[in-house]
Specification:
The longest helix is centred in the middle third of the chain and has 16 residues. The chain is 39% helix and 16% strand. It has a single domain, classed as Alpha/Beta hydrolase fold, catalytic domain (Rossmann fold, 3-Layer(aba) Sandwich). It is globular, with a radius of gyration of 18 Å. Helix 2 links the parallel strand 3 and strand 4. It has 288 residues and is α/β, with parallel strands linked by helices. Helix 3 crosses helix 4 and helix 5 crosses helix 6.
C-alpha cells in the first residue's frame, strides 16, 4: 500500500457510496441520542462495532447482506455520530439505551432478530441480548466476533504506536498502518487505503475508553443469566486472543448450556474486513 496515494476526499466519497443506500436516524432517550443506519428488508440483523469504532467496521457487510436481510447498525453511545451517555458508560447503560432506541425504530419482526457483535461490541451484544430477554424477546441468533469481556488473558502483542500533536499527517497515517498490523489485520497486504481511512476516522471520533471494560468478565457473567447458545467467531491470528483461544472457549462452555465455534484460518481480529466473502457467507449460513 502506498500511503502517498491517500486521498481523504476520495475515500470519504467511497464511504458515502456505502452510506447513501441507508436510512440514517437519530433516536433519543432521556440519556443519549443514538445514530442508527438501516439498509434493506427482511430478517433483522443488528451489528455492533468494536471499541474505537463505528458503523464503518461493517462496511463490507452492509451492501452485500442487505440484499437478503434488514441491516441495522448503530454507532454506540460514546462513538461516531452518537452522543455520549449522561449516565456512566457501563455495559448495562449502553445496552439499555441501544434497546430503547431500537424499539423506537418500530421493527416488527421481533421473532427473528439476529445480533452480531464485534470485540467490545461483542460484550455489549451479550448485555443487549439480556435487555431483549427481560422484555420477553428471545434472539434468533447471538453471534460474537472476537468478543471482549471474557476475563481471559489478552494475547501478547507489540505496543500500539501513539499519535502525538507533533506528528505530520503522513506520520499519523503510518502510525495507523502499524496499529492495524499490530491489532486488527493479520496479513499486511489486506490493509488498504479504505481500512486506513476508517481507522483514522474511527479513532478521531471515539470518546469512550472501552479497553478497561473489555478486560473484565462482564460478557461471561451476563451470559450466565441467559439460556442462549452463542455462535463464536474467532480469527486464527487474532492478536487480542493470541495463544489463549482454548481459555476463552472453556469460559463460554462453563457459562452457556452449549456453544458453537468457528475459527477462520489466517484471519486477524477484524475478520469481516480482512475476509469479507468468507465472513458474509458464514453469517448467511448461521442465519439460514
Amino acid at each position: 500500500m502506498q500511503i502517498e496515494k491517500f486521498n481523504e476526499k476520495k475515500l470519504q466519497k467511497e464511504i458515502e457510496e456505502f452510506e447513501k443506500g441507508s436510512k440514517k436516524l437519530f433516536i433519543s432517550t432521556d440519556d443519549t441520542t443514538v445514530c442508527w443506519r438501516i439498509w434493506g428488508k427482511g430478517q433483522p440483523i443488528i451489528f455492533l462495532h468494536g471499541g474505537y469504532g463505528s458503523w464503518r467496521h461493517w462496511i463490507k457487510q452492509v451492501t452485500y447482506l442487505s440484499k437478503d436481510y434488514q441491516i441495522l447498525v448503530p454507532d454506540m453511545p460514546g462513538f461516531g455520530d452518537s452522543s455520549d451517555l449522561k449516565s456512566d458508560h457501563t455495559p448495562e447503560n449502553i445496552s439499555l439505551n441501544l434497546y430503547q432506541t431500537f424499539r423506537k425504530l418500530n421493527i416488527t419482526d421481533l421473532d427473528n432478530i439476529n445480533l452480531v457483535g464485534f470485540s467490545f461490541g461483542g460484550l455489549i451484544s451479550g448485555h443487549l441480548s439480556y435487555q431483549f430477554l427481560k422484555k420477553g424477546i428471545e434472539l434468533k441468533n447471538l453471534i460474537l466476533v472476537g468478543p471482549g469481556g471474557t476475563g481471559a488473558r489478552r494475547g501478547p502483542m507489540r505496543e500500539m504506536v501513539r499519535r502525538t500533536p507533533k506528528m505530520s499527517f503522513e506520520e499519523i497515517l503510518k502510525a495507523h498502518f502499524e496499529n492495524l498490523k499490530i491489532l486488527m489485520i493479520n496479513n499486511p497486504k489486506n490493509i488498504d487505503l479504505l481500512s486506513l481511512y476508517i481507522q483514522l476516522e474511527n479513532t478521531n471520533n471515539h470518546r469512550l475508553k472501552s479497553r478497561p471494560i473489555s478486560a473484565t468478565n462482564t460478557l461471561i457473567k451476563i451470559l450466565e443469566k441467559q439460556n442462549i447458545i452463542p455462535y463464536l467467531i474467532f480469527g486464527e491470528k487474532d492478536a487480542t486472543v493470541g495463544p489463549y483461544l482454548e481459555e476463552r472457549i472453556s469460559l463460554f462452555r462453563e457459562a452457556c448450556k452449549d456453544v458453537r465455534i468457528h475459527v477462520e484460518i489466517d484471519a486477524g481480529h477484524w475478520i469481516m474486513y480482512e475476509k469479507p466473502d468468507r465472513f458474509n457467507n458464514l453469517i448467511k449460513e448461521i442465519i439460514n
